[in-house]
DNA sequence: CATAAACTATACTATATTAGTAAACATTAA
DNA sequence: TTAATGTTTACTAATATAGTATAGTTTATG
């Protein structure tokens, strides 16, 4: 029941970009050093964030990354799903045909887990990076 | 961000036991067949539930398992934690010394994840197996 | 128009976790 | 005493995690 390390790095990277003047481009190396994320791994993560439309990348010399939209329009859920794909608390909620008991909708355990999952998604989507950035002491 | 398969099996096994007259003992083989859980794997899971004080085991011929307390006193959180250990949404929340950025309490990302974690625990502890059993159609 | 500083793409790898299985043992009712 | 039950420990195949490596592409600038 854990978010993976890449997601942690991704959120901290987006938070870092959120703290810069909007639109400012910084190279991956700087994020890597500031946030202590292994460089190669970070590049992979930034590519996922780029493909998800959360950050914008610039190639070539003086290239780097910036946010693709204002921090207030990027939620924690956006970042989690960019890295891990859709949240699925349990196998049966992800692909009900794999449920080896009864169809998820009829199983009270799976019903309850579905409600948990919805609650988690709602919770994560309530936090945007404008809010988080204002929380930095 | 998924519960593992053993936890799914565990919850369904506890739900199954909750549907029986309180205190009734059934052998693992029956649970295995009814809930379609591989027998050997189920035995391992039942042992964890036994150690957590959720079910009671009886050895020898005519042995088996029953609930150790009424369904109303067993929550989904109890079962999840019996199988997976304490819920930790992220590495830094589990062991803050492993946090490679700043101490969790000072990082707004980790703060937000901590709130998510608390919300999840609260959510899971609101469901007990009396409730779930009454939801079975 | 060459070069070096950036990002991109694909493939590889060591380790840990997941989801079981196997073999030998302990308990207990009949 | 035996057979049906749970217990213990060890093993294993497959997958996921957390990266690393190698080769390539883009682009500002001198």
UniProtKB/TrEMBL annotation, chains A, B:
It comes from the Bacteria. GO terms for cellular component: cytosol. Pfam families: Rrf2. InterPro entries: TR_Rrf2-type_CS (IPR030489), Tscrpt_reg_Rrf2 (IPR000944), WH-like_DNA-bd_sf (IPR036388), WH_DNA-bd_sf (IPR036390). GO terms for molecular function: DNA-binding transcription factor activity. Coiled coil: none annotated. This is Rrf2 family transcriptional regulator. It comes from Desulfocucumis palustris.
